[in-house]
Amino acid sequence: MSGLAIETASLSKTYGGTTALADLSLSIPTGSVYGFLGPNGAGKTTTMRLLTTLSKPTSGEAWVMGDPITDRNAVVSRVGYLPETPPVYDELTAREQLAYLADLRGLPAGERERIEPLLERFALTDAADDAIRTYSKGMRQKTALAGTVLQDPDVVFLDEPTSGLDPRAARTVRDLIADLAAEGRTVFLSTHILPVVEELADTVGMMNEGRLVAEGAPEELKRRAAAGTERTLEDVFLDVTDESAWEPPAVADTGE
């Protein structure tokens, strides 16, 4: 696992008789941006919940920064997670929300000093003392994202981070992702906005029906599917997630 921020080995999750994730094996280097794509219900959120210890796998193993996901305290101290519907507290202000998160995580004084620069970076300073219930969806999203990176995590999991953001704010998020990678941090990015992935991702994994069906650098994936014509990442994504043409790979019967 040397040099890997995230590694999974046959990671699987079932709910009753439904397989949400099947035999996922990943090796994601430290300091990279991994674009995680797939239609709704493909297993993306399930994967992030497993890797952030919010859910337990049915089978398989995974490590984050060398720590097994069974060691919740170790993993949580190294990661930040922005879910698709981020938790913010309407009765608090943005500044209070970040202070509350700092208290909850037991951050030392030095890391608490990150609050004001983050408020400024996400253009929240002027509204930092207004109740979050008065915020637009985009402002709520930016508050949640500031909270995600508050503890300066080694690995950042982002589920649709630009949802609800205007173009300027979305650009701020893209710049932040690039800066995190440049600082040696790892970003696991799930989004439906494929140009963002094409711009930022070192490697792209494409999911369908709970399985990883394609993986590689964006340009590599496009070359594989080119067939003599110019292709975009969107073309590749539509091809590999085409339910009328795709069949899942055979897997051994585990008896589960």
Brief overview, please?
This protein is of the alpha/beta class. It has helices at residues 44-51, 72-76, 94-104, 109-112, 115-121, 137-148, 167-182, 194-200, 218-224, 233-240, and strands at 4-15, 18-29, 33-37, 59-64, 67-68, 79-82, 155-159, 186-190, 203-208, 211-216. The two termini are 28 Å apart.
Fold and architecture overview:
With 256 residues, the protein is an alpha/beta fold. It has two domains: 1-78 and 155-248, P-loop containing nucleotide triphosphate hydrolases (Rossmann fold, 3-Layer(aba) Sandwich); 87-152, no CATH class. Helix content is 33%, strand content 25%. It is built from ten helices and ten strands. It has helices spanning 44-51, 72-76, 94-104, 109-112, 115-121, 137-148, 167-182, 194-200, 218-224, 233-240, and strands at residues 4-15, 18-29, 33-37, 59-64, 67-68, 79-82, 155-159, 186-190, 203-208, 211-216.
